[in-house]
Amino acid sequence: MTGLVVAVAVLLASAAFGLVRRARDGKLRESPRPDDGQVLARLGVDGGAEVTLLQFSSAFCAPCRATRALCAAVAAEVEGVRHIEVDAEEHLDEVRALKIMRTPTLLVVDAAGRVVRRAAGQPPSRAHLLAAIGEATRVGGTR
Amino acid sequence: MLDPRGPRFAAMITSVVLVVVLITGSGWLALAQAVVFAAGAASIRYAPYSWIYRKFVARHLGPPPAEREPSEPVRFAQGVGFAFMAVAAAGYLAGAPLVGLIATAGALTAAFLNAAFGLCLGCEMYLLLQRVRARFSTN
């Protein structure tokens, strides 16, 4: 009887967790954080591009592939956009500084080295990514 | 590279088995599921539920999607599942059913999230574990 109760409780809690995750994953959220320029510079974000798509990946990560494909395609098509993918495991100090909890996490960084938006768990939709890039271009241009 | 529907199917069967383990409190069934996880962690080729999928289910589902899934995350998740179910089997069989109950509940959480949402909980925990481990080794 206890086992049945536990099973039902686990399934209900997991379903709730999964629904919340599904609603949040891949959303490009605003990223109100202080200047992370130095940390980002250590990862190769040097202001050489108008917008940098900085992707954190790991070996055990199924959605990292899809995120990589999307970012690579967008970087190839849109002028001034660069895609950098780093292995989160090899940069744990930076991962901690930037509060990266999961892979893939994608940071949209403007020319001034500020993280404009971030998405985790799943790749964002192409349209949302393009909108975030436009936003980063405008923000970077006004400085 | 895997047909991504295979691991989802396997997670569905796993979820059913784990619910049965919880209801019956059977240590032997927990042990059997631990063995299944171990086989999958060794190689997806040997994973029994994936074999059932390839042999009997895939042909009825039409052509596989173009999107393929790397096998490393799936094998890693099977390894995490094995750890949980080894503890569960030991708990049930050694007369500590509470240990078995908690470990099986943990495994069911991961299996159900994978089956219903395609979420790999083990993979999500991986980076967090690395972060914690690095913190301990530097201090």
Automatic annotation (TrEMBL), chain A:
Coiled coil, from the record: none
Domain Thioredoxin: 8-138
Gene3D superfamilies noted in UniProt: Glutaredoxin
InterPro entries per the UniProt record, alphabetical: Thioredoxin-like_sf, Thioredoxin_domain
Domain of life of the organism encoding this protein: Bacteria
Pfam families in the record: Thioredoxin (PF00085)
Name this protein carries in UniProt: Thiol reductase thioredoxin
UniProtKB/TrEMBL annotation, chain B:
Annotated ranges, domain DUF4395: 3-131
SUPFAM superfamilies, per database record: MFS general substrate transporter (SSF103473)
Name under which the protein is recorded: Membrane protein
Entry keyword set: Membrane, Transmembrane, Transmembrane helix
Coiled-coil zones: none
Phylogenetic placement of the source organism: Bacteria, Bacillati, Actinomycetota, Actinomycetes, Micromonosporales
Entry-linked InterPro entries: DUF4395 (IPR025508), MFS_trans_sf (IPR036259), UCP030042 (IPR016942)
Transmembrane segments: 9-29, 74-95, 101-129
Pfam families, sorted: DUF4395
Taxonomic source organism: Planosporangium mesophilum
